[in-house]
Structures are given as C-alpha cells and as structure tokens.
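New to this. Please check this fold:
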Amino acid sequence: MSHIDDEIRELSLELYQTYTKLQELKKQKEPQPVKNYEFLTENHKPIHLLDMFKDQDYMIVIHNMGGKCSWCTAWADGFSGIYPLISKEAAFYVLSPDSPEQQAVIKSERGWQFPMVSIAESRFAKDMGFQEGTSYFPGLSVFVKNADETISRINSAPIGPSDQFGVLWHLYDLLPNNPMS
C-alpha cells in the first residue's frame, strides 16, 4: 500500500466519523411546526401537504429547482430509481416551481416514477429555506404527520455536489476527467 492509499483510507474514516456525528446532531433537532400548504398536482388539482402523506406517518420532499437545472434532474433520476424502496417507508414527492405541464413533460421524458407537485404559487420553498427572492435551491425536507393531524418538519438538508444524496457525483469523482466538475 502506498502513502496515498493510507491517506485516502484515513480521510475516508474521518468522513465516516463526521457523517455519524452529523446524523446524531440531526436527531437532536426539535420538530418545527409547518402549516398545511396547498400545491398543484400534475393534473392541476389542488393538494394539501397533509393529504400528501396518504397512509404514511413520514414524508420526504425533494426541493427541486425545476427542469432547467441539469443537476436537479440528475438527482431526481437517482431518486426515481430508489423510489419503490423509499415509498414503503415514507411518502415521497418532488416539488418544483415548474408548472404541472412542464413537470409532466420532464417526468415522461426521464421516466420518473415518483409523484410531483408544483410550488409555483406557494411560499413553501421560501418558508422551508429553499428560496430566496426568485431563486430556488435544491434540498430535501422530512416531515411527520402528528397524531393531532398537524405537520412538523423533523429534518432537512441542502443538496449539492458531493452530497450523500447523489451517487452519480461520487462515481464521477473516481474518473480521471470528472464530467461534472
């Protein structure tokens, strides 16, 4: 083994330890009450956040910047592949400022399996910290449906290059000429 291999192994262990510490801190966060926002579904029907839980107690929401963001579509491609597994544990939606028509087109073109809703007419992204002015930011939020039919956000995370949510970036990082950098 080379010195570089030893250093890579050491840094990998440090990353794992830091990630474990981060997860422990996230478990200590206090739930944040969230109002029952209204969105538009793919067929232009209104849907409320509480209704999106369906029969699940938890829901994962992806804050997507829309079809114009190639990186956001790459993350969504990955989420589509694991959607059947995720949906067994929690409701799962991708939300974007795109219109329902735009969402339907990109969903069809990319073969996405998950449901989408439009947040174009909502303060949701802003209130969740994923919009500033007219700029949207990628991320995710995890919600719980409380026994009294209220909603709380129990976790959130930004999404960006080299995060733990996009396997594509980690695979590309192993290539000598990373196409994403």
Notes: The radius of gyration is 18 Å. DSSP finds six helices and ten strands in the chain.
